[in-house]
Amino acid sequence: MASSNRDTVVTRVPTSGRTALATARNYVFGDQLGVALFLGTLSVFVFTWRIGVFITDTHTLVHTLPAVANGHLSFGATGPNGLGTPGVHAVDGKLYGRNYGQLVATVPFYWAITALSTVVDLRIGILVGWSLLTIGFGHYLGEALGRRSVTLAGAVAGLTLFVVNLSLGPMPLSTDQIPVLSLQAATLLSTAMTSTLVYRLCSAMTTRTTGVVGGTLTVLATAVGFWAAIPKRHTFTTMLVMGIVFAFYRSRHPDSAPLSPLTYRAVAYALVGLTTWVHAAEGFILFAGLVVVDLATAEQRDARTLATIGGVFAVSLLPMLLTNFLIAGSPFQPPRLLPPYLGGEQTVSHSQGSSRTGIGGTSDESTITLPTSTAFKFLDIVLLDGIRLVLHDPGRLVPVYVRSGYISGIAGNDLKQALNLTVLESTPILGATISLIGGGIRRWGTRSQGLLSRLSPTDWLVGTYWVLFTTLYLPKLPLHAQLTVRYLLPVYALGVYVVLRQAAIRRTLTSHIRAFTWAYACTVLLGGQVLVVVLVVLRLSRGEAFQLHALLGLTAAAVLASSAVGASLDERLRAPTAIALGFAAGLGTSFVFLSALSYFQYGTYALPLARELASLLALG
Questions:
Q1: Angle subtended at Cα 124 by Cα 22 and Cα 615, rounded to the nearest 5 degrees
Q2: Which domain holds residue 74?
Q3: Which of 171, 176, 399, 592 is the most exposed, fewest CB within 10 Å of its CB?
């Protein structure tokens, strides 16, 4: 249901010398607003960037990256600091990491930063880079809006912030930190690309205003922003998932699209194949969901079309299959199925089909080498376990999606603090998804088409991915060190699409965008200050602060859910819904920024200005 973009955005026709660059830019970012959103997202999260290791298993990526950059998959005979680090696997006396797709994508950053460090002080390089991002954001936003004043303001802000940061004195940064610096830079880029993809999807679906709101909320008001600079695979997966959804949408709506529907379908399958290189099980569920929805809704299912798509998908699987073969001796056995390295000396048999024995003994679950066995294993884990759990114990969804609180078995591994928030607690704007019920009631009352018959192919794909990610990880959730249910991070971006897909929400934003904007700004600027005062006065611990966010988030989600249902039934409730949506989004943003500047101060802040601000907000 593509509709015309009614918002006024100035698109300048490039001169002949810039045509190729402008065309490439439009393929990736869509238009000037897409570029502005990308640069703005980078600018915001570079400000809160802490250079360091947040979660222990990041050490695995930090040690594997230099080896991959030098053409090796293994990184030595002893683990980091001689200890068993999560994510390290041993084969024939050599140690291997995981998430090789993420590592290979990070290699260009590693090379670039290493080269840059030989000619420029990295501390100054980061300051210059951030100032250029700010200037670029102002430039493209000014170009999109046709306002030179915005461009000028961006230039002044960028230069001023550079001088301020330089005067505060950059923190020391050694070349030993280049691997983690590279991993975080790549993660920041994937976060910014996720924002742009949501913008392009929502603007193509409705208007650019909706697209800007969607892209902004995805990174500022959901858990995606919490993990923006933390090099976990979930951020990469989220970007790939939204890339698949956008390519799939374009394949069904070719109007004004630069590529053919077949090309977009092939791109979607190629992104699925690349996902398997990051995490095989997630790639498996993405393929299962895409192939079912695609074949059920595609107009072209002839042999030539399917052969083209199948060929592209097969090629996209080659990096994963080759990596598996070089490490495990079997293309169908990803590193995650190999025995974990437990520290010290560990001998592992490398003969295909034999059991692999380490310090921890034999693990039958880690010896699947036949493709059919692997497929059935994945089918059982991905679909059957989760489905059985939902059917027999639906209450397990509550501590994942609704209320977590203090769970003794989990808090014991989190310094005895309740640090894990559910989906709604960390991202209350997803409470607006409940407006689906109001829309269904209204259509039933008017005897119009039912809800299911009105769902588009993209809706089916988004819903399928939401269910599959839940069933994949529900058997192991809730789990310690999740903080915001990070295993379900793609669900947050998909949830923003679902929220903005509701006609009642879109009409609310169209008619009451000012109310939404003011409610959001007041919640962030004033409400954020109130939260800081409460933290200081009550001397709350990190766990207590998290639970305060949890209760506020659930309250905001409940208010938004009820008002969203009402707005879908009565347009007079749109104004309260806009305010409730702004309040819920503001709470999500406050959590993202307080987590970065107050709750978790690790490593070194990339920017001196952020360091000074964080010193004022640090929990005692």
A1: 110
A2: 30-119+174-334+371-617
A3: 176
